[in-house]
Input
Amino acid sequence: MTAISSKLSTGKNDLSLLFKKLWAPFSLTPMLSWLCGALIAVLLEQTVGLYVAWTLGLPKIPVLFGVLIMLETPILFPSAVLYVLIIYILPVALIAWLTTSLANNLAGRLLDLQSWLAVLVHLALFYAVLHLWAEINDYRVLVVRLTLISIILTLSLNVVNGYMGEFSCSHPGFMALGAYGASVFTLALFTDDRTFGAPLLPAQLGVLMFPLSLIFGGVLAALGALIIAIPSFRTRGDYLAIISLAFMFIVKSLIENLDFVGGPRGLGGQPDWANLPTVFAWTAICIWITNNFVRSTLGKALNAVRDDETAADAMTVNTRQTKMVAFLFAAFWAGVAGGLFAHVLRYVNPGSFGLQKLAEILAMLYFGGLNSVVGSIVGAVSFNLVSEALRPLEIMKWIIIPVIFILVMIFRPTGLIAFTEFNVVNWIRPKNRIAE
Amino acid sequence: MKKVTISFIVMLLLTVGLAACGAAAPSGATDTIKIGINAPLTGDIPKVGEGTKYAAEMWLEDIKAAGGLDVGGKKYNVELVIEDNEAKAESATAVTTKLISQDEVLVMVGPQSSKQAVPAGEVANNLKTLMVSPWSTNPNTTLGRPYVFRTPFLDPFQGPVLVNFATKEFGATKAAVLYDVASDYPKGLAEFFKSAWEKLHGEGSVVAFESFTTNDTDFSAQLTKIKDSGAEVLFAPQYYNEVALIVQQARELGYEGPILGSDSWGSAELMNLCGDACKGLFFSTHYAAAGATGATKAFIDRYNEKYGYVPDDVGALTWDTMLLVQKAIQDCGKITGDIAVDRQCVRDAMANIKDFEGITGSMTFTEEGDPIKCAVIVKISDAGEFEFYKQVCPE
Amino acid sequence: MAFFLQNVVNALQAGSFYALIALGYSMVYGVLLLFNFAHGDIFMVGAYVGFFVTTGALLLVSTLGLVALPGWVVLVLVILVAMLITAFVGVAVERIGYRPLRQAPRASAAITGLMIGIILETGNLALLGATRLSFPELIQTTTYTVGGVTLTNKRIMIVGVALLLMFALHQFVQRTKWGMAMRAMAYDFGVVPLMGVPLNSIAALTFALGSGLAAAAGILFSVAYPVLNPYMGITVGWKAFVAAIIGGRGSILGAALAGFLLGFIEIFVAVIFASTYRDLIAFSIILLILIFRPHGFFGEAHTSRLRL
Output
């Protein structure tokens, strides 16, 4: 036993040593440098990516970092790796390394000026990278949009299942309420469609009112959540799991029976308003608000309730109210995600919001890690990317993904990145300063 | 450290420079025609995906045997890009986008069920690529979308056909319907049947309009109600796996009247699952497998030999779709290599197809991209075969 | 009256399956405080194992030219063999998916269960293809009509076997040493292992018993509804999960009653109201039950829950 473990640990040491060696030149590199590097890399891909791909014998620019190509035609494996190296890894590493001291300086000044300004600059840079990267291909745009929506969903479920420590199964239901609420709002008010007839308001106004329609969807979901919250937070125990599951079935059955929204035929024709910038903005806002929420007094109270409700009660935490607020908050964001989802697909169907969706959201959440904003982001992004990248495997995909998940859960039972606080300033601070 | 940096930069510049000067589009790309298949290989309805995949692969075999697809006197290689949409709406949209923008397919066949075909049609239409769904019956799939076509007939046609048949054949005046409320094909058909029946026999002549939810296996409550309602004929527009259970349970509960079905019954699996209980029943479909002649028979025999079972309606419809697509490409006459031009050309050729003789019937397309075709009423014989009984064509 | 009684008979059959599956959920939940989300798929595995054992047995009989046993004897043997095999599957699931996570948050284990379920479904699809299987008919259906109520020998057999199995389980848990260990574990998960009760063995036993019952349910289900597909366990499984919780934590009687109750609710909602609204009304009733009896029928008010 000891022999094995010592062997394991030396193996680990070798690897971490190598990693450390590679990392050494970048130990002082701030986020700003990385973003600049990424920006250069995507610009490079835009200008010469296609030619590089052709030289390497690839038919097109590899759409998801070459993984699809590797799985579809294994013979192109080296080419795909080379492409990723030339277009992404080398330029990013090079630029990041070159600009380290400059960027540290700049980031420091920005941060001293106004921290929100620094955050905005970073966010804008990040969006530029994302936008340029996605622009190459419609498929990338769609994958990015769906991934961002998954982030909102996972994050909002994390508030209930992670920060509050309950086990809720109703997220597909909230999502459905949001999706239908927002769809009905835009279709009835702003578009000339078959279901609701002529628009009540000028269509030009619609784009500006789109946030309102999403909020309408979110509020609808939160109202639905109230139905669950009132009975289930009177007592403690696992009953929320069942009540919320029942709620999910009820919502699905209700929509199937509402003929004015199409019943099982679904509701289509939503205008194409949920484009990449819109979805990105909503995701950024959601992350920001949720992060502030869980770090607020209320968020701390929520953690106290999770760890010991009786003790929290004794410490003057109004446990029932705390749980209600958090649950409605989560439902609201699930509703917003549903509204975005409906406007990305431009069609909704009650069948999309069933047990399969539930399994997906739960998987993303627990894979990423509980009680952690970063964990939810990592979980949603990795789940979406992996499930798109493994598409060529067809049936085997749904054996490999669960196996990966089980292994992750066995070796990291709380998920990849659990129980961490997300402090933006720490992320973007110049690395020649000490963390706050 | 400096050395490393310099070699870094040199290497980078070298490759990028080399690439920028020397690279040209890989030749041979214009010799290949890519056709995307968007099918549910996993998820709720894997059998549908399997039938789609098999029929498409059989078609490809033919093309390969002929040395390629002959377009305007030139032989082109054909490549099928088969993708799994997991029977999910968002996945079908992602697959459609991937097929069109990444794999650059000329035409996309599928998705099959309306839940996926409606959102996928939106994408295909926006990206100006011909999409043909072999199975989706929801009007919204093709409505207002010039680039989207389909090959099955629609519910508003099939419903009245069955109503007239049941009235004449059984002399029935009171009907019952049992359908899946959560699935759009059965629900649509059930509603058209009901309205047509009530138009013919008066308000309230559908004495029981009962439903269940997808994946249910116990229909005893609904069937007890139906038996109690005194219905003379039971209409079950369900998929064959559910039909087997419905028919068996109806008989066990003592319902003796005829049970009538729709084209979704048309699978060889029906008889494996249902056994003797289904013998003697009628359903409407695209073609009769037993006693089929010509191309239909050839297709069925070949499919049966290759995959070991008589093809479902999905297989036959996909086969027709592949041939339609082939005809559209050939009618277009030339492949320029500019994918946008070619897609437009193929789409226009598709819209102009007249009286296409498919194995599921003769097809001409309406402005909406829906086929005008005849329905066949099939009787399940005592040997368990689907025998031709009657043909009904739209007026 | 006949109409009403007929539906009672219908509900008894539908309830038997929910009850048998709910027992497996309830035991695991009671003893280990886990949601075993793979249980519905173990039910599916049981049905498939039953299918292969039956076809194998029938093939053996016909090739060796043995004297064919009566159908019901074969069925009993098949149920026993399939229960045994599926029990091993259940133990394997516990070993792979749950034991490594014994110290982890309970919800993490629930997710591994969910993932194992997906592997079982997709693995089945990949191995056996998309063609649905038809369960061989071992017993000829005989129909009896008593006062306008239609009964078949299969229905009587299904309800009978289900009740028998529940009784056997009850006896096992109440009368044997192992059963006592399980009850003790359910009483206090933390302290009992310290008193020398082997935790891992009890956990394995719990899974074996639950999976065995699920296999029996799977075979009875296939006798009643002889169409097998890889996804057959999902909906039934989740509904049985609901029944298990309504029954109250770890209560065998409660889970069994709740299973039958769920069958009655589903059937009678479809009978009384428009069947279109069945799920809507049935789950609303469940919601109401939980509002008024938040700990289920036989559960005691206790404060444990899925930590984290």
